[in-house]
């Protein structure tokens, strides 16, 4: 007969079931922690211990069947209705606890709930997570108005992502299917002690499905419109080695038809055109009753066309700019470079191309295709635990290596369709070819000690170390433009007026290489004054260092502002090429902060080089009280201080900017929450108030004074901002089989102090909603004073043309980016119990208020409010052998917005592009043609069928 040993840990009920000859330890904080049962012993345990398992815990399980299913690691719905209010275990505080017991605002998604509701992507997760925003195109996540605003790896995200305890720099793994992930937890608010670095806004915990004691195998297949296929399978069970279990899971996903219809003949559609596969293997080791281990190895391969992070996912409903040649900010994207100058596009004249996105957000005219690749990718994670009599020692270690490559076109040998000949015979290929890469390697180590004894005082302590190396080269090319192979010699005075050759025909090249280290030590205690009142306090010290270098070269060709007249070799504005590297990057006597060595120049490559060195540290922590007057109520008051290290604005979208250094961010949060159950109704409410300092916002300001075209790219630290709000998550089961989930969040994130930044899209602050510091008259008066230095001009013509005049603005009251004020999500699902099966219908409705994509809240950075309806129908026999799911997403094919809009100035020229004689300047006048707005939009309507079959 099994021996039942009741105990408590961390003020939570624990049952230890002693089975002979097998020992099983079930640590329950309202739900199971660890189970090691032999199949034959299982029946004894269930028969002899059914009543014990069914006893009412701190937060009792709903029924014996649900409790047993949870204790045995099986989903509760397999025993009955799939839509019951289950007890959910989370590891938010590094211990398995009931979600309702944790004094943290958490949204958690099990694999079963994701299948039921239809949460298949990270973007879906944002619908049912208050405050969460995600850009699938840019792989950027924000939470409660605090988030990542750049993909520069020398800067950090604001939401930490942990995959099986290993920090990762990307959110991509959170998009794995439910066959891979057992649970996803989104911890809202700064996780100041246990997660620390880069958890200033929160953390996302990804927990993989683990190997099973018994044989398990499952296969799934999905087919959807746009010719999307997904095939995946998993197998798990014991190995021939005693105490060693395994799990193997793999999938292959392919979509051949893009969401964006390309009207250029012969050019492929874009938008989620993918060919990806993931293979993952796990081993679990039960060495003895005190020592256990687990390890996972994953490989991911992308062979995508126009799909995946970095590919097209935007809508630019603006007229094409008038004729722009290579250096004049031309790209092959609608709204900028008029890439529609092809055979069937309306008006092929360079002065009058028509953007197909004016009428349809999902039509494009692109003559250069995408390619998104991910190869050489390995992800490793492991944890090793020693269970002592009163504490556990856990060592978690792992890392990743990958190579991401974004090309336009797929290789440098593909000629762009677009070309034209200027008066005088010069042929121009205005479309830039583009290559962006990330080569990443990182490894982390973490050692934690946590108490497991009975008593009012519980503790946890740990040390952490992270080591990362990355390279992030970015290049643009001008196809077949041989004039730039040898820039004019006079533009390289440091090399004796002989420029190094440019054999790759690169217009720009920027290559950062960085080494990043993070160290931390932390500890947290929980003390229970009584059975209902608990005190928590934690501290963490973090130290971050970033050292590295950056190399860059800039060639100017076929643009009137390539320093005309400065070099005698220049024959008009369009030829030859000019090397701007030594003109743009001038060493300073005293390098600015964060730069250990200012510009040096390599005569072999022509590149300028600069070295960086930065160090930041911070003490963070939390203190709080938790009150649980009864088994169904949890109220908490919590203060936390969050931190994100500083960094550098380098690479990706800029080159050797003047002042790349940025200060660290800090955030103080006061939060009050209540988690309450009323029988068949459950509600979790959180109120929070942030005091946010030094938010890192990237700004790129074009030099509007004329001459050499360059931009000042910086990280602007917003001095002070506030984010406050309320979040409500509810589950209601009014009758058997019917479940209603309803979430609402209110978010007010705004700047309280920021004076001086210049709007990149409106540097002269001409917009009616702009709040410039000073005026044109003030500027003229200041410049009249010889002792005053000012960066603005008093030339009205320059002002009207958008050149030569810049005004900083007062941004007090402006909303932070990607922070909709209101967000609503409702899911209604109902299960019909048929004679031999169940049929569940699920309908979800989401709505989000308007939001901005910039700290400059203007009409051109505003994404409108939007809503979406999804539906699913799930059929499952009572033996749970297979499942059939019919689904439709975005039922009404609405346009939704993943975040706020981006904006940029559209520039061109006016005047004849002719020259009467060699060396005669061309009459050209720069003109700003307005502001182009780009919206990050959600996918169109998709629908299909999914089949699941379980072999064991």
UniProtKB/TrEMBL annotation:
<dbReference type="Pfam" id="PF00593">
    <property type="entry name" value="TonB_dep_Rec_b-barrel"/>
</dbReference>
<keyword id="KW-0406">Ion transport</keyword>
<dbReference type="Pfam" id="PF07715">
    <property type="entry name" value="Plug"/>
</dbReference>
<keyword id="KW-0798">TonB box</keyword>
<keyword id="KW-0408">Iron</keyword>
<keyword id="KW-0472">Membrane</keyword>
<dbReference type="InterPro" id="IPR036942">
    <property type="entry name" value="Beta-barrel_TonB_sf"/>
</dbReference>
<keyword id="KW-0812">Transmembrane</keyword>
<comment type="similarity">
    <text>Belongs to the TonB-dependent receptor family.</text>
</comment>
<keyword id="KW-0998">Cell outer membrane</keyword>
<keyword id="KW-0813">Transport</keyword>
<dbReference type="GO" id="GO:0006826">
    <property type="term" value="P:iron ion transport"/>
</dbReference>
<dbReference type="InterPro" id="IPR000531">
    <property type="entry name" value="Beta-barrel_TonB"/>
</dbReference>
<dbReference type="GO" id="GO:0009279">
    <property type="term" value="C:cell outer membrane"/>
</dbReference>
<dbReference type="InterPro" id="IPR012910">
    <property type="entry name" value="Plug_dom"/>
</dbReference>
<keyword id="KW-0675">Receptor</keyword>
<keyword id="KW-1134">Transmembrane beta strand</keyword>
<dbReference type="InterPro" id="IPR039426">
    <property type="entry name" value="TonB-dep_rcpt-like"/>
</dbReference>
<keyword id="KW-0410">Iron transport</keyword>
<feature type="domain" description="TonB-dependent receptor-like beta-barrel">
    <location>
        <begin position="370"/>
        <end position="891"/>
    </location>
</feature>
<feature type="domain" description="TonB-dependent receptor plug">
    <location>
        <begin position="99"/>
        <end position="203"/>
    </location>
</feature>
<protein>
    <submittedName>
        <fullName>TonB-dependent receptor</fullName>
    </submittedName>
</protein>
